[in-house]
Amino acid sequence: MTGFLRGSATAMITPFTADGINFDCFEKMIEYQIDGGTDALVVLGTTGEPPTMSEAEKRALMQFAAAKVQRRAKLIFGTGGNDTQKAVEMTKIATGLGADGILAVTPYYNKCTQNGIVEYYKAVCDATSLPVICYNVPGRTGVNILPATMEKIADIPNMAGIKEASGNMQQVLETARRIRGKCDLHSGEDALNLPILAAGGTAVISVVANIVPKQIKRLVGDVLSGKLAAANEINDVLLPLIDACFSEVNPIPVKAAMNALGFDAGIPRPPLTPIEPEHLRTLKTAMQNIGLEVTA
Fold it and tell me: Is 135 among the residues known to form the active site?
């Protein structure tokens, strides 16, 4: 299926306290995104740190997001994992808690075959009537959705697209060629947002949009409307910030950036660690250089 996601989606961080989720901060971040014109919020994607969260926390976060967003933006809940049965169960839970769509990362660690990837997505899609977006990020999972495999996955009726974060533009272009007209292509890598959109992508699922939702929204809009010169101007400004946001493993830098903007985002859960001082200095400088006010 095509047409589910178009525009700018933010891969939301999950703000933590020592005792659990900081729901007050999460609500402020939701409003920040909606005020910035974000089209969709992705909750419990990689940036949200779901591997370190309990099932009760995941349920509570999804329920809270649905209650606060109130259809002002699309809500996409991450449900994927390395156990197909658990992914199916989480997909059913997310469907019942008010999701508009599902994001399912490829199975990680197990390193299944390409046929295994197809069967996994068939199972997830069978568990819901909602649109499903698969997420290809081999650098984290050890599994890569090859273009020929994505062509098969695209035939699943409620498969809505692929979030591509392989970092391989040749592969992205071949995937785009094979799925065009069947399901949509989305950028899952901020540094490649512009070229992936130019190759026919319909949306970005962005980490950096946590910090600058308006600018990411404008970048996407300019590319989709054919204003490539304007899009390049925005991209040129954002690239140093994007680089700084991936100076360490995501979401370490973006959480630090949100703290610097005045949000009480906390720090990542172990085994992730707080940002290194030199990377924090670079990050704050990049933020200041685009006009953001940051804490000292």
Answer: yes
User: In the 3-class helix/strand/coil scheme, how is the chain assigned residue by residue?
Assistant: CCCCCCEEEEECCCCECCCCECHHHHHHHHHHHHHCCCCEEEECCHHHCHHHCCHHHHHHHHHHHHHHHCCCCEEEEECCCCCHHHHHHHHHHHHHCCCCEEEEECCCCCCCCHHHHHHHHHHHHHCCCCCEEEEECHHHHCCCCCHHHHHHHCCCCCEEEEEECCCCHHHHHHHHHHHCCCCEEEECCHHHHHHHHHCCCCEEEECHHHCCHHHHHHHHHHHHCCCHHHHHHHHHHHHHHHHHHCCCCCCHHHHHHHHHCCCCCCCCCCCCCCCCHHHHHHHHHHHHHCCCCCCC
- Is 109 one of the catalytic residues? no
Q: Which residue type sits at 9?
A: A
Query: Which of the residues 32, 120, 121, 135 is marked catalytic?
Result: 135
Q: One digit per residue, pLDDT tens: the chain, 296 residues?
A: 999 999 999 999 999 999 999 999 999 999 999 999 999 999 999 999 999 999 999 999 999 999 999 999 999 999 999 999 999 999 999 999 999 999 999 999 999 999 999 999 999 999 999 999 999 999 999 999 999 999 999 999 999 999 999 999 999 999 999 999 999 999 999 999 999 999 999 999 999 999 999 999 999 999 999 999 999 999 999 999 999 999 999 999 999 999 999 999 999 999 999 999 999 999 999 999 999 999 86
- Identify the active-site residue in 58, 152, 163, 284: 163
Domains contained in the chain, CATH given: 7-212 (3.20.20.70)
Burial (0-12, 13-18, 19+ Cβ within 10 Å), 108: middle
Instruction: Determine contact, residues 120/26, Cβ cutoff 8 Å.
Output: no
